[in-house]
Amino acid sequence: MHTTRILRDISIAFATAAVVATGFWMTSPVESQAARPARIAGKPNLNGIWQALNTANYDILSHQAKAALAFRPGPVVPVPAAPVLAFGAVGAVPAGNGIVEGDEIPYLPEAAKKQQENQANWLDRDPEIKCYLPGVPRANYMPMPFQILHSDKAVFIAYEYAGAVRNILLKDPGPAPVDSWMGQSVGAWEGDTFVVTVTGFNDQSWFDRAGNHHSDKLKVVERYTPQGPDHLWYEATIEDPATFSKPWKMRFPLYRHINPDARLNQFKCVEFVEELMYGKLRKTPVQ
Amino acid sequence: MTKRNILAGLLLAAVFVTGRSVIAHHAFGAEFDPNAPIRLQGKVVRLEWVNPHTWIHIETIKDGKPEIWMVEGGTPNTLLRRGITRDTVAVGTEVIVDGYQTKDHSLKRANGRDVTFADGRKLFMGSSGTGAPKDGSDPTEGGTKPAPKKPGGGK
Amino acid sequence: MRIPIALGLAIVGSVGLIAQQAPASAPRSAGATAGQGRSSAAKPAGVARAADGKPDLQGVWTNATITPLERPQNVKDLVLTEEAAARMEKAVTDRRDRLNEPSDPNRTAPPQGGDGSTGAAGNVGGYNNFWLDPGERVAIVDGQRRSSLIIDPPDGRIPALTQEARTRQQARAKMAMGRGQYDHPEYRPLAERCLLSFGPTTPLVPNYFYNNNLQIVQTPDHVMILMEMVHDARVVRIGGKHLPKHIRPWMGDSIGHWEGDTLVVDTTNFPPQQNFRGASENLHVVERFRRADDKTINYRFTVDDPTTFTAPFTGEIPFRAMEELIYEYACHEGNYALGNVLSGARNEEKRLGSKQ
Predict the structure, then answer these.
(1) Is the minimum CB–CB distance between B154 and chain A shorter than 8 Å?
(2) % of chain B with per-residue pLDDT over 70
(3) What's the CA gap between C298 and C288, in Å, rounded?
(4) CA nearest C151: which of C283, C54, C36?
(5) Rounded to whole angstroms, how far apart are CA atoms C205 and C79?
(6) Do the bridges between strand A184-190 and strand C222-227 make them parallel or antiparallel, or are there none, so unpaired?
């Protein structure tokens, strides 16, 4: 009897500990939000799993819905290209309000032509199709979340798409010694806005699936301004004298996943594109 | 067991490939043809500073006609940490390469088994001379700091 | 008499204390997973702490070392003498310097039929030594120069495989014999496909070649470990629960908790393709991160897979603070090699008419 009570109390203690340990999993959104510190080292807390809710990845300019991402001539109107036809409505492009201030991209004439060509040859050219790294700012409006890890020493972004990552350097190391897909990010706070300057890009990534592109002279200045605990107002100023006649700006909200279970899943798509990229090199190609 | 044996044993383990997975990455045997040795001498026309392997594009002359070969190197990241960048070796620099062509003989590509300047010095040694890697293990150790990074020019 | 809840919680708490690492000044005895004795670990003086009071593990670290994972056959002791370690290190730097000396500018092409180089160099001589950055120092943990990263079993070697594992390997080998290793991209190593690095991701064992660097970012809810190759970020959910069994991310699923000043990370849910030393999808890795001083994290890992290894094994690796930056390792985007390997095999088949 005595022993039973002891065992009972001990098991209560363990059970309590277990509940506390998994409590993170069992709270409601309201409770977990209350537990989230408002500030980290005096700055607004950027931690969380964030995602854009727009169709900018299809086209950063305003656009109406259309049948497909790639077309070929049809008897009356252009029809979906053969490789995408079977998707039907799943392969259609939804409408979007656009995220570009002024809804216009100030291309230089040659660059404007290249954008048209990119779009017409989307299947061959969009780096997203090959699961290449998305670059900045496209990574921030991919249709997948990203996680910001914000401590007193670091700001780091882990993207679900292709496992892309960005370490935002808080001390400027000088010009990037090499070009990269995600660029070199240097961040600093201006009041409650986190400002990130990104340089050192290669010329390989696109801004969307509509062929909007840039050169390796690209410079992006991002501004992350919290609007309460669950929203960030995001702005990115694009500068590239080899592609655009003047700087221009994208802006849209970023929404925090408030589900306490929220976590980044994995989308390592490199594996998914092997048939596409190497299928013809198989000893016995798939018919 | 003599001290020399200990040394030999550790040296063997430390210096040579120890794990199956490590052999598996370096697909040298899978990619290049031991029956197709090459020696190239020519000018660098392009440096692809990419992972998993840097590719050095070299223009050689064969039978009076220019030929572009791509030569495979290693990861650029280790060189960057020594202050060596794409601009360290300028386009137009004369280099000598010995190696083996890819098994795909339709490609003019080879492994950079030994890539040197025309005078025989190794290509990416860095201004510190030894190109010594720093694993930061002993803070009191003297020795070379990585060479100052050159400004990322070419843009 | 009722035992107060406090005692119950104390029992829970003391489990944590036992599992804490105590700094040792003598070679460890076997059974490292059983605990290092009851001496309470003194909080290292001057270890930086994060805002929530936990030791700060953040920064950029390298785990490069010349100490191998397994102890060489003819070496008995875990701890090297200072002289032996110095000789090892000198041999490595001497070799490096020798390989970095100028070559003969009048050299001819290498030998027809290959240059005889073994291992990674693949009979074609690989590439120059200046591309490598394997580390130049033996691993030093708590003042001990180590002859192997593995500390348990006491012989410093991975335990024998189970019969099940041997059967599995034989079946794989048999299957591999019946097909060409270059027939399909799926037959190529994960690293050649740029799916994962050629070194293990979990545990964080160095690859002995290059880019043995990682970055740690720490918040109260998550600890992120970025490995330079292949820009793989492991996000450890502090206080989280493991994913459902059918969800198996490439690097497994990591959850963590603090035991005093030690971060304990538990990883399961490995996919069967990621087979660290022949492990199966039942692989279970427990890692312990302890900030030893302002320049070092003492990292300890235990690998456990009863369907593969006849016993668990434990290793220790010092992570050393690194001043330099981690650079982007965009592997797939620049991966000429995989295409070269496959087209090479097809080209060779046409030329030689034989199956490789």
Answers:
(1) no
(2) 63
(3) 8
(4) C36
(5) 19
(6) unpaired
What would the pLDDT profile of A141-159 be if each residue is shown by its tens digit? 999 999 999 999 999 999 9
Beta bridge partners of C248: none
pLDDT of residue A36: 84
SS3 B48: strand
Per-residue pLDDT tens for C13-22?
343 333 333 3
Domain count, chain B: 1
Are B52 and C346 an interchain contact pair (Cβ–Cβ within 8 Å)?
Answer: no
pLDDT tens-digit profile of A249-271? 999 999 999 998 899 999 999 99
For the record, the structure tokens of C105 come out as 């500018």
**Domain annotation covers residue B21:** no
> Who among A174, A179, A200 is closest to B149 (CB)?
A174
What are the extents of the domains in chain C? Answer: 156-352
The answer to whether residue C220 scores a pLDDT higher than 50 is yes
Among the listed residues C274, C297, C282, the one whose alpha carbon sits nearest the alpha carbon of residue C202:
C274
User: E strands of chain B, at which residues?
Assistant: 32-48, 55-62, 65-72, 94-102, 109-111, 114-117
Q: Give the DSSP H or E segment for A6.
A: helix A2-26
How close, in Å, is residue C343 to chain A by CA atoms?
6
Res C177: pLDDT: 83
Higher pLDDT, C200 or B154: C200
| B152 to A177: CB separation less than 8 angstroms, yes or no | yes
Per DSSP, the residues of C177-240 read HTS-TTSSGGGS-TTTTTSS-SS-SSS----SSS--EEEEEE-SSEEEEEETTTTEEEEEEET-
- Degrees, nearest 5: CA angle C188-C193-C198: 85
The more confident residue out of C244 and B6 is C244
CA of C183, closest CA in chain A: separation in Å? 5
Long-range contacts of C92-99 (CB under 8 A, 24+ apart): C92/B11, C92/B14, C92/B15, C92/C66, C92/C136, C93/B132, C93/C136, C95/B15, C96/B130, C96/B132, C96/C129, C96/C136, C97/B130, C99/C128, C99/C129
- Comparing CA positions, the residue from C79, C150, C70, C87 lying closest to residue B3 is C87
| A261 in contact with chain C, both atoms CB, cutoff 8 A | no
The minimum CA-CA distance between C157 and chain B, rounded to whole Å, is 13
Interface test with A, best of B31, B84, B155 (most A CBs within 10 A): B155
- The total number of residues written for chain A in this structure: 287
Q: What global pTM score does this model have? A: 0.86
Please check whether residue B118 lies inside any domain of the structure. yes
In this structure, what CATH number is given to the domain that contains residue B56? 2.40.50.1010
Residue B48: both structure tokens together: 């692809």
Instruction: Search chain A and give the residue with CA nearest B83.
Output: A177
User: What pLDDT, on a 0 to 100 scale, did the predictor assign at position A31?
Assistant: 66
Which H/E stretch holds residue A234?
A: strand A231-239
Contact C243, C251 (CB under 8 A): no
pLDDT for residue C16: 37
Per residue in B1-17, pLDDT tens? 444 444 444 444 433 33
pLDDT more than 90, % of chain A:
86
Distance in angstroms (rounded) separating the CA atoms of residues C227 and C62: 10
Task: State the ipTM, two decimals.
Answer: 0.88
Secondary structure element (H or E) that encloses residue A113, with its range? helix A109-120
Which domains are assigned to chain A?
39-61+97-281 (2.40.128.20), 63-96 (no CATH)
User: C193 vs A270: CB contact, 8 Å cut-off?
Assistant: yes
Q: How high is the pLDDT of residue C221?
A: 93
Better pLDDT: A18 or C279:
C279
Q: Is residue B95 part of a domain?
A: yes
CA gyration radius, chain C:
23
Residue C73 to residue A106: CA distance in whole angstroms: 68
Residue B114's domain spans which residues?
A: 32-126
Residue with tokens 């500073």: B49
Q: Is position B147 within any domain? A: no
